[in-house]
Fold this sequence. Notes:
Layout: H1 2-23, H2 26-39, H3 41-58, H4 69-101, E1 110-118, E2 125-128, E3 141-144, E4 147-155, E5 160-164, E6 171-178, E7 187-188, E8 194-200, E9 203-207, H5 211-217, E10 224-227, E11 240-249, E12 257-262, E13 272-276
Antiparallel strand pairs: 1-2, 1-13, 2-5, 3-4, 3-13, 4-5, 6-7, 6-8, 6-10, 8-9, 9-12, 10-11, 11-12
Amino acid sequence: MSYLKFQHVFFGLMGMSAITAFAIPSRLVNGVQPGVEALFAPIARPVGGVARWAHDRISPEISPDQRNSQDVKKENQALRNEVASLTVRLTDMQQKEGKRAELGTIRARCSPFPVVGPDTGTRESLNLQGSTMEGLHDGMYVLYGGGVAGQIQRAGAAGAHVQLVTDPGFGIRAGFGYFPKGGIDFIPRRAPEALVRGIGNGQMEILMLTKEDVKTAALEIGDWVIVAEPTWPAYLQGQHLGRIISIGDRIRAPGYKRIVVEPPQSLLRLRAVMVVTKEKLD
């Protein structure tokens, strides 16, 4: 009789399973499932832990990397050194890119050339790692992030020579202007035409301005000196040459002022420049 009762219970449970699986909607069963599974948690968790322990003891996972700890430490240190080196190099590249980006729309006309070093003579000039075979020729304009660096004076098959704006043989007509404190708009000064020439030692001076001219234009120390050379292309007009660092009397020319100008950075220390190689854009 007990056998029949067990059979009845067994088939009853099977029937309920079939009804649950095929007749009752899954959304109703899913709501009950977590609660049912929770009833078996006190047994399932210990059994699972024992099974994992037995697996680790009988068949542990072995890493293919069998190096000792010292080798791993050495490799980690080498990787740290490499990361530090790459970080510094990336920062340097970003700074160079930022300087080139300051050229604005002119950048599309330019090609970068590395600087080999300053000229070994007495003149203020740079030697470029570039030649006529790369399209360089005399008279090309040379720029950097701070404005105009100079012009190519001697280009050959083995290299190119740049005469800097601070070289005593360099001269150009210029204008003046300033940025108001806290402002970003450039305001030109109403000054008569002036000539800027290099005087060496990383500096230039303004010629042809009288005391009255300086007073009328309200020129001040810190004002920018910009390109105003009519023989130069329009896209170079207004490019920076430097800033006024001193205004004094010209001893040998009474009535005239001696104005000293200095580029925003040492041109002899430039590591790369941008040469205007495209007079016209496509």
